[in-house]
Every structure is written in C-alpha cells, then in structure tokens.
Write a structure and sequence with these properties.
mainly alpha, 15 helices
Length: 316
C-alpha cells in the first residue's frame, strides 16, 4: 500500500469477522513507524542491556509493577550487585528480600521474587527458564510477567500487556482515551493480532509499544506532536473524546493502611534484631489501624511474630 492509499485512520480498514475489526491491517501500518521511533528514542535502561540476562529482566519486571523507573533504578542496581543469580537470592532468608526492597512499595513482590528464585534454583538449575509455560508455573509469576520475560529476555513472540501498552492500543485502535480498569479478553485478542509474525520483531514491538506509552502516549499530557502514529490514531482523529467509561481508579496513600504498613516495615528493615511491639506502636497514633496493619503484614508473611510480643522480618 502506498502512502496515498493509506486509510485516514486505522478504523477505516476492513473488518475481520474472526477478530478485532481491522487489526491485521492496522498492524501493518503501525509496526514500522513505532519500531523506527523506538530505535531512536528508547531509553538506555540496565535491564535492556545484554549483560542483564533473563534474571535481570525478571527482577526489573517485578520491581516495575506500579512503580516508576526512577524509583526502581537504584534498588535494581543494588539488588543485582548483591544477588546476581537466582541461587544467590534463594540462599538468603525471605526477610532479606523484604529488607532490600526498601521503599519500592507493594513489598509482597519481594517475597514473590524470592519464591520464584527458590523455584528456579530447585527446578531449573538456577537458570531462568525459557519456556512460557515454565515461567508461568513459577510462584508469584502471572501471565504478564511470564510473557514479558519470554519476550524481553529470550526474544519470543508473546503479547505483553501492561498499562502503557493497553493505553496505546485503546487510543490508537479502539478510539477511546483509556482502557478498561481490568484487562479484557478483547484487549488480549487485539494484542495477539497486532503482534508481528517474526519473533525478534514481535519482541521489539512489545518493548516499543510499551515505551511509546511510557514516554509519549502517557495517561496525562499526551504528546501527540511526538507520536510516530498520530496520523493513524483513532482517538486523536475523533477529536480526543473524553473518557466516558467507569471512573478510573485513583491511588491514594496518605492515611491508608498501606501507609501504616510501610511505616511498620521501615522500622523492621532498619533493625537486625527483633523489634518489641512498643517500638512499633510509636510509628502511628491510631491503635486500631496500627494493629490492623500489623496483622495484615503478619498474614501476608512479611512479618514474623515472636514470643514476648516481638516481631522481625521473616526467616523462612
């Protein structure tokens, strides 16, 4: 198809009765400009370098869930310096993973990553498995992380649907400002249909579409002037209609149980000895919320209760 024959938007292409309307044709229009943009503008991130290996990719994927790159970078570097292989982490107590997680938030990810390292060491000789099914069978790893590791570490062909990718596809193909709150079957089908057939190109497309959402097609203040596919974007061509779906979930922190949990964990991370409850009581004035937060940490396996009303990070 020549430039003069290109449809005015990806929604103008013929519908495919067996899949997402026009997805196959849209893919052909989108791949080349997005990949060319990525070649010029991709950030030099440590987990994208060859020396990171599959373990470095896996660590980054755990850390980047709901956490911005600038907060992840220093913790990632320290983590890989201390535990360059899964077996190194597996040999440590899970509480050490929680301690090293620092203030990245959602610390159960640290326990899950530790559990995955133990399983990799026991089942796969310490090497992160290549097969998607084997990755998915590891504790703490869901569909997204398995696909991301298989794609980014091993160059395989898998749809990798994070928030950034879902937003790019929602705007460019579907013509809406934001994707649904939870990933839908239609989104997964669209992501599969947009994948290039060639494995290395598909892996690059997964990274490129994610980077486009992170740097240009952002949740707020999208920069259409820098977008390589602005001329094909269904949402922009429709005049950028405002979101009219269910309210988007906002993230609050101040005054929540999550904040109290973070304060309690901070005290435990800084201590190499068990901490008496009286010390933990000082971090939050409201006793009912404080007790609820501490009970939640114990229930989640992030804190281990000891005799004499003392607490520590878990050893087992």
């Amino acid at each position: 198809m020549t430039a003069t024959e290109m449809p005015s938007s990806v929604t103008d292409v013929p519908s495919d009765p067996d899949g997402v309307p026009g997805a196959a044709e849209a893919a052909a229009e989108l791949h080349t400009p997005v990949l060319a943009w990525f070649d010029q503008h991709a950030r030099d991130l440590p987990w994208r370098r060859p020396e990171a290996g599959a373990w470095g990719v896996m660590v980054s994927e755990f850390m980047l869930q709901q956490t911005p790159v600038n907060r992840v970078l220093p913790v990632y570097e320290q983590w890989l310096a201390r535990w360059p292989r899964p077996a190194d982490l597996a040999a440590e107590a899970p509480g050490e993973a929680v301690r090293a997680w620092g203030r990245l938030g959602y610390p159960r990810r640290a326990l899950r990553l530790h559990g995955a390292a133990v399983a990799i060491t026991e089942r796969h000789g310490g090497d992160v498995p290549r097969e998607h099914a084997q990755l998915l069978a590891l504790p703490g790893i869901g569909e997204y992380t398995a696909a991301a590791v298989a794609s980014f570490a091993y160059g395989q062909r898998h749809p990798v649907l994070d928030t950034n990718v879902r937003r790019v596809f929602a705007r460019t193909i579907t013509g809406v400002q934001y994707p649904p709150n939870a990933t839908t079957a239609a989104e997964r089908r669209l992501a599969r249909e947009l994948l290039p057939d060639d494995e290395p190109r598909a892996a690059r497309w997964a990274a490129a579409s994610m980077e486009l959402g992170a740097l240009v097609c952002t949740a707020r203040n999208e920069d259409c002037g820098r977008c390589p596919v602005a001329g094909l974007c269904a949402w922009r061509l429709a005049g950028k209609p405002a979101h009219d779906g269910p309210p988007r979930r906002g993230q609050t922190y101040a005054g929540t149980d999550r904040q109290v949990r973070g304060k309690l964990l901070a005290v435990l991370r800084e201590s190499v000895r068990p901490v008496p409850r009286a010390v933990l009581d000082r971090v939050w004035d409201e006793p009912v919320q404080r007790a609820r937060a501490l009970d939640g940490l114990v229930s989640d396996g992030l804190v281990e209760p000891l005799e004499n009303d003392r607490f520590r990070l878990p050893l087992t």
